[in-house]
Design brief:
Structural class of chain A: mainly alpha
Number of strands of chain A: 0
Shape of chain A: globular
Number of helices of chain A: 5
Helix content of chain A: 40-55%
Strand content of chain B: 15-25%
Shape of chain B: globular
Strand order of the largest sheet of chain B: 5-2-1-9-20
Radius of gyration of chain A: 21 Å
Oligomer: heterodimer
């Protein structure tokens, strides 16, 4: 069985043999990390690597606030209706009077990505 | 395969990847160098995701002054204090803040050496120390000389020096702004600075001039800046590009005589922005490409030269991403996600990145460049190459809105890091 472990870069352990070190690290991982893994699973994470939608949404947070929660003059996204967000993003792909940066950003996203973003922000409890 | 007990114990003693076991820690320790847009964002992202994680942040300054919005300080639009944020107060979020200057990095054992000789080691290093100046590229320029001919390209006391010099200058004075060859921190920054100094001069000292000695021929958002300069500050700004011998070769700090090799300029205020490299400590550690910048892989921004060593922000070769606070902040969040994935024995998939850089040509006159990137196999790659900036002749409504959005971005991102 191939078990992937954290920090599996073991190049500097050559004199002990990489495989030995890998086994060692496996032992350490499974003894110590169950609690850590629970923490990860239980969080309402800003950073949640397994969640592709959340990673895609990280770029939006720089202006719209973490998880779209706050953005000053820039609208919040968190907790809005999924379809409303999707319609809005589809509309904002095209330049229009009074619109500043969103068309320049959204033109680079395909519809699946827009759906993922809408799904993500709709799922956040503001 | 069997493992002898000797090998196992020896491995435990030697394992550089699990020293937290020897320290009795319940998890890995992350060491971050630099508490700005890269390092500060990374520390907060890790603690938000995993409050119990051991995160140590090494930062020299008790107060971090942001380069974004520092040009407004020069123009008297707001005070230096308003762009200063306490790095010490990051402790309230459970981050172990070590206020000290770092003197060396030992990448192979994930160790930072401090000025007092202390060594701080962890399982992962994240390096975000920013830039240093290549003083020797301009004859006569030294760190001490920068007290007289400030760069103000690291915000803080240098910003105040330049502000004070502008305040003390008589009406009718000549200000020289020297811009280096790329790459440098914040590509549109020098031109925003010129704009906002012109705004200050127009109100307070309207007979004054700005001479721009520019090693570059073309520059970021050039059409938008020139449109604004013509509209707002006619006749005040004279720019000499690199192809017309704009590159500054020498400066006399005491007389403020500046030479391009082709011509000499006498300045009343000289803002000399020197050529730049990644922070010297990274070069000394052999983490650069030999040309002064640090190569990283595009998914989590891990050094291509050292394992479990991540490099964020201005110091790194971030593919097509510019050296901006926006970019460093986003890189940090993606880096945190990559580190957490590695802790779970997983990898991350490529995603889509954004950079937005707003510039102010006047307090209520903003415009932007907005880019989208993908994490290609070799580098972060720009997706759309045309139409990246605010349109020319956009009109006052758009420029006013973009100035508000610039402030909004700044407040949001600084709250994310320091709030």
């Amino acid at each position: 069985m191939q078990i992937r472990t954290p920090f599996a870069h073991i190049d500097s352990l050559s004199h002990f043999g990489r495989r030995s070190a890998q086994v060692l690290i496996n032992v350490i991982f499974f003894q110590i990390f169950p609690a850590l893994s629970l923490t990860v699973t239980g969080m309402t994470a800003i950073v949640f690597a397994q969640d592709t939608d959340a990673r895609l949404a990280m770029a939006c947070g720089s202006c719209h606030g973490l998880d779209g929660q706050r953005g000053g003059a820039i609208p919040a996204l968190a907790g809005r209706e999924e379809q409303e967000l999707l319609d809005l993003m589809r509309t904002l792909k095209e330049p229009a009077d009074g619109i500043t940066i969103m068309p320049r950003i959204l033109r680079a996203y395909n519809d699946d990505e827009l759906k993922a973003l809408a799904r993500h922000f709709a799922s956040i409890v503001p | 395969m069997t493992i002898s007990r000797r090998t196992f114990v020896g491995g435990l003693m030697a394992a550089p990847l699990a020293p937290y076991v020897a320290r009795g820690q319940a998890g890995p320790r992350i060491i971050i160098l630099g508490g700005g847009f890269g390092g500060g964002s990374l520390a907060r992202a890790l603690k938000r995701a995993m409050p119990g994680m051991s995160v140590t942040l090494i930062e020299r300054e008790a107060t971090y002054h942001t380069c974004p919005f520092s040009n407004g300080v020069l123009a008297g639009m707001w005070a230096l204090d308003s762009i200063g944020f306490s790095t010490i107060s990051l402790r309230k979020h459970g981050i172990e803040v070590v206020q000290a200057s770092a003197t060396a990095i030992e990448p192979e054992n994930h160790t930072i050496v401090l000025g007092d000789g202390r060594k701080i080691s962890g399982d992962v290093l994240v390096l975000a120390p920013g830039i240093d100046f290549n003083w020797s590229m301009i004859e006569g320029l030294t760190p001490n000389a920068a007290e007289q001919v400030p760069h103000a390209w690291k915000a803080g006391p240098q910003t105040q020096i330049l502000r004070d010099q502008l305040m003390a200058m008589d009406d009718g004075g000549v200000i020289v702004v020297a811009i280096p060859a790329p790459p440098f921190r914040c590509p549109p920054g020098p031109y925003e600075r010129i704009s906002l100094i012109a705004h200050y001069l127009g109100r307070e000292k309207p007979a004054s001039k700005i001479i721009v000695l520019d090693a570059q021929d073309s520059f970021s958002k050039q059409g938008l800046f020139e449109e604004a300069w013509n509209a707002l500050y006619p006749g005040m700004i004279e720019r000499i590009p690199g192809s017309a011998s704009g590159t500054v070769l020498a400066v006399d700090p005491s007389t403020r005589l500046i030479s391009t090799g082709f011509d000499n300029f006498a300045a009343d205020v000289a803002n000399i922005i020197p050529p730049q490299t990644a922070a010297r400590i990274l070069l000394d550690a052999g983490l650069d490409d030999g040309l002064g910048w640090c190569p990283v892989e595009p998914l989590g921004f891990e050094s291509k030269l050292a394992k479990n060593v991540f490099i964020l922000g201005d110091a790194a070769l971030q593919g097509d991403m510019p050296k901006s606070g926006f970019s460093a902040n986003l890189q940090a969040k993606l880096c945190a996600s990559a580190i957490l994935a590695r802790l779970r024995g997983e990898t991350v998939e490529p995603t889509t990145l954004i950079n937005v850089c707003y510039s102010l040509a006047a307090p209520n006159y903003g415009f932007s460049i907005a880019d989208v990137f993908t994490q290609a196999s070799d580098k972060v790659t720009l997706l759309e190459t045309q139409g990246r900036t605010t349109a020319l002749a956009a009109g006052p409504g758009i420029h006013e809105a973009e100035a508000r959005y610039a402030r909004s971005w700044y407040d949001t991102v600084t709250a994310e890091i320091f709030g």
